[in-house]
């Protein structure tokens, strides 16, 4: 089977060195095997999307030497996600939920850290339809809309061998519970959209940052649940393999942010830095180049070695 990978930026902000390092690993993983690169703009997170960020990301990636063979924009694929969500609803695998994030936080039975919260299924069987849930919220003047949640069966243990992180397993019914699928009636959140797109686009392996490793079992559950839906479209229900690599962090050990200085690609361009300098720095952090070496992205193809990447985060002190 031909290797098919993806580059999937989100227009929630400017591309920085952390984004590019992960994209570099993903792109080289494909090109070193003579595979196909799919570019997918994941622009469904509207409140966080920044005007012009999508176009800037495309331009900056091309400036750095990235290319791709197919291109998709998630906001243009809403009908596909709506169809997949309807399939899950018809089979009783999704239901409307009126709980706010504060409600979910208050329902935690143990201290929680990170971005994922456990949801105990408070709204399971509570409403006959989305409209009933919307009416309930409207009657209380909350100004909110329901979300769709995936009904996770008890004992939903997911295990897989990650190409970089190794063996990973998680009982989704105990760690996440009924996780969100969409924030509006016919929409799609990250988990649903990714599961649908990775299947329909024939992605054979997902390469991304290891901060998303805990979210992967939920994506696998959705992909499995959509098996018949995919078969009806003549697509294989086989899920992609996964490869989660370490992030770039600041000296404080936290992921890159404004507090670490300006690490945007745009800022380096304005300062006169070249693509070869930027790629060289990131390649050195992966063990593919000498410190200070300047090299093009394409020049790294024969040097690519996943095993050479350190298993600890790359601490960025300066550039």
Outline the structure in words:
With 319 residues, the protein is an alpha/beta fold. The protein folds into 2 domains: 4-76 and 246-315, 3-Layer(aba) Sandwich (Rossmann fold), CATH 3.40.50; 78-245, Rossmann fold, CATH 3.40.50.620. 33% of the residues lie in helices and 16% in strands. The chain has a 3-stranded parallel sheet, with helices on one face. A 3-stranded antiparallel sheet has the order 4-5-8. A hairpin with a 3-residue loop joins β6 and β7 (166-171). The radius of gyration is 21 Å and the shape is globular. The mean pLDDT is 92.
SSE order and pairing:
Blueprint: E1 4-7, H1 17-31, E2 36-41, H2 53-64, E3 70-73, H3 78-90, E4 94-97, H4 101-106, H5 130-139, E5 147-150, E6 157-162, E7 166-171, H6 172-175, E8 180-182, H7 190-200, E9 205-209, H8 216-225, H9 227-232, E10 241-245, E11 248-249, H10 265-270, H11 275-285, E12 314-315
Parallel strand pairs: 1-2, 2-3, 9-10, 11-12
Antiparallel strand pairs: 4-5, 5-8, 6-7
Helix pairs in contact: 1-11, 7-8
